[in-house]
Amino acid sequence: MMARARSSYPQVDPQAAGLMHRAFARCAAGEPVSAALKLVQRRRARLLVVSDDHAPGVLFPAVLRRAQALGLGGEPVGELARWEVPTLSVRASEVAVRRRLLDGAPAVLLREAGETVGAVQPTGRESAVPSLSLQSKLERQIPEPIVEFLRAVGVLGSAMGIPVFAAGGFVRDLLLGRPSLDLDLVVEGDGPTLARRLARQIGGKASFHRSFETATLHGGPTGAVDVATARRERYLAAGALPVVSRAPIPEDLRRRDFTVNAMAISLSPSNFGQLLDPVGGWHDLRRRRIRALHPLSFVEDPTRIFRAVRYAVRLGFSLDRDSRRWVRLALRAGPYPALSGQRIMAELELMAREPRSADSLISLGRLGGLRLLDSAYRFPPAAALRLKELSQLVNRAAEHRIEVEGLRLFLLALVGHLDESVAERTLRRLALAGEPLRRLLRALSEGPTLVERLAGARRPSDRARWLRSRALETLGWAWLLAAPAVRRQIEWFLIEARDVRAGLSGDDLIAVGVPEGPVVGAFLDRLRDARLDGGAATRDEEMALVRTWLKGACGGD
Fold this sequence. Notes:
By secondary structure, the chain is of the alpha/beta class. The chain is about 50% helix and about 15% strand. Among the domains are: about 110 residues, Roll (CBS-domain), CATH 3.10.580.10; about 160 residues, Beta Polymerase, domain 2; about 45 residues, no CATH class. The termini are far apart.
């Protein structure tokens, strides 16, 4: 008797209902954080569903606890909620639910008969799902020496038994097809030890930063390469530097600033180039948006406000609606005593180096980020216009190889509209002191007077004399204040007149009878002015002027 052939049965999709839990609590968007925290604790809820007149949002108990600890217990929960939350029917497929979680959704809410009846939350394993391999993209876009270096790093890590990844901006720019040599390595294990061995292997050097378990490798194919230990972070105070401890790579990615910077690629030989994307960074790249990873991101580290703007302008992206609300929350939560002026200044310096520096500063001002410098700070349209115009001056100076301190000029444009006391407080908040501070304050006070003098000047030599005695900061501020005719005078001085000198030397003057000492310098200054005013264009014409002055006994005209 023949055995019956075994039947093949299709797998049954458990649908969304098979994945959901019902451990959630509901509250209105206006409910304060402290009351919502008591509610979720009483209900032992894993999720808080926040309701307003439109779509629901979600909050996690850990966020509520952290907000309470940071003194935000009186804030309405609607200000902290994630509002872009997908909602599906309980009969939706498991694939539909998991796809939304892989795209970075904080949770999926499930509805039946128009009511929310359950939720599906990420398990933390989403980043381990086999996904996009970037190996071919690496080999096409990245120079071969860098790819070979990455392979060698992966082989060394494998020999040491520690996985190694390239992470952050390098991965983001690779996916966008943008050239990037800003290479950051992350190690699940001991980053400094790997950096030390890698330095020996390539004949380079490594410097170490023990408090953060990071190192910088010098001598790699891209110059300096940062090597970090995968870590979690804990902020003891808002605005303070974090306390770090080792963590797996998915947790390291989840503690970062924005989803588009929270991706990594494996360098291990067995899966070289595989993308890890636990928070939906690739999804946000395609949507061209900058999205913070959690509601208290900007409260814990307000400098992320500066970075959000910088990335958005550089990439042509926009800050998503939730992140904008969280920025406003962070600005209300200030001031931040633990946030040093040096850290803010470092972020402004990075902005000033961007190709679209003025656009970055304008976006920061419009977002309200400059209120971190002083609560009385306001950013009017006039400041935005001055930043745009100043960018033109800085670019024009660069074309003519005139060295200007672009950041200082931008600072003048940012504070020039403020009351004198607010402007000084704002600059001092950036840890400016001594001569740098005095130069900026002097520029603000002298600029208007200089513009008036230039407008009434008759001779080019007079204009040059007034401009020559002023710092570049003062010239830049006067240029911003001035009408087009006076702006042209300042540009003429910087580009043409500033380096005009007499054709004759001091020795030439002494040889024809000018007494040694201060008179020589005075004659040289007069010759320079004569050249500016068109009274002498050659050495012979200068010599004739000198003989005429000498004949005047007192050196007069």
